[in-house]
Amino acid sequence: MKRRMTVNQYTGHIALILSCMFVGIVSNQATIHAELIRGMTHSLLQATLLYALLRLCASIYLIRYSIVLLIVITFFVQLSYHSTLTTNIIVNIINASNHDIINFSQHHVIEILITSGITLILALAPFPKSTLITYSVSAVGFSYLFVPLLLQLPHVYQNNAYQNYLNKGGSRSYSNSFYTIEYTLYKLSPRLPLFSTLIAISDTINLYYIQTKTTLSLAPTYPNNTSLPLCTIDMIPYNSQSITAKTVDLFTFKYTTLSIINR
């Protein structure tokens, strides 16, 4: 009985390693198609980083499950749409009808099944107790994540890209310290796409928070002899769908909108 449990733990650990490698390959599929060796190198190093994160938090279940959730969300979006999670995707999912969800599920059965299997493996697979393995994979994984950014200091926070990021983010009324942290996560996200998922979730929460705090009121407008010419454009959704929904192919089909909008 003891030997059988040991075999099961070993098998589960191998499955965990292979799952991390598969997640890394899916994450770097564009790079792999462009340059095989470089893409596979990034995939292997990213898999090492994911394994290190899960191993370090193996006994802290809340943190481990949170990391697993971020991994599988990022993985599913990349597997299905070959892109990272965005606020646009989250909002469309939240506002999706039952018909949209059923349609989506029918078109992505394989992706859903693969993601479910990856989730179970990452959440439940055991880790062998070895300080050497923990230190080794952590050193390799976190070096892959942080060393390229550290080599760019301090230029990375002094160039035009950083200033543009601060200017664009300033409309959300956060402090520059917040935007610096967010920009750091943004720069690290190509090596750990979980950061892109975190940013998208944070932006979506902020968007809905702003909506709950903002009151929109409409008042009648009347012309007079001294006022400038006024043009009013009414944008009316068709069939309760956003008029911009036709540009969103999230659910694998196109929405129909008012043809007059396209004139």
Notes on the structure:
This protein has 263 residues and is an all-alpha fold. Mean pLDDT is 81; it is low at 235-263. The chain has helices at 2-27, 29-34, 36-56, 61-81, 87-94, 98-107, 109-124, 131-150, 160-169, 176-188, 194-213. Helix content is 65%, strand content 0%.
Q: What's the β-strand tally?
A: 0
Look at the helices and sheets and give the structural class: mainly alpha
Which segments are poorly predicted (pLDDT under 50) over 5 or more consecutive residues?
235-263
- Strand proportion, as a percent range, falls in under 5%
Helix content: 55-70%
Largest sheet: none
Order of secondary-structure elements: HHHHHHHHHHH
What Rg is obtained from the alpha carbons, in whole angstroms? 23 Å
What spatial form do the alpha-carbon principal axes imply? Answer: globular
In whole angstroms, how far apart are the ends? 74 Å
Per DSSP, the total helix count is 11
Mean model confidence by pLDDT = 81
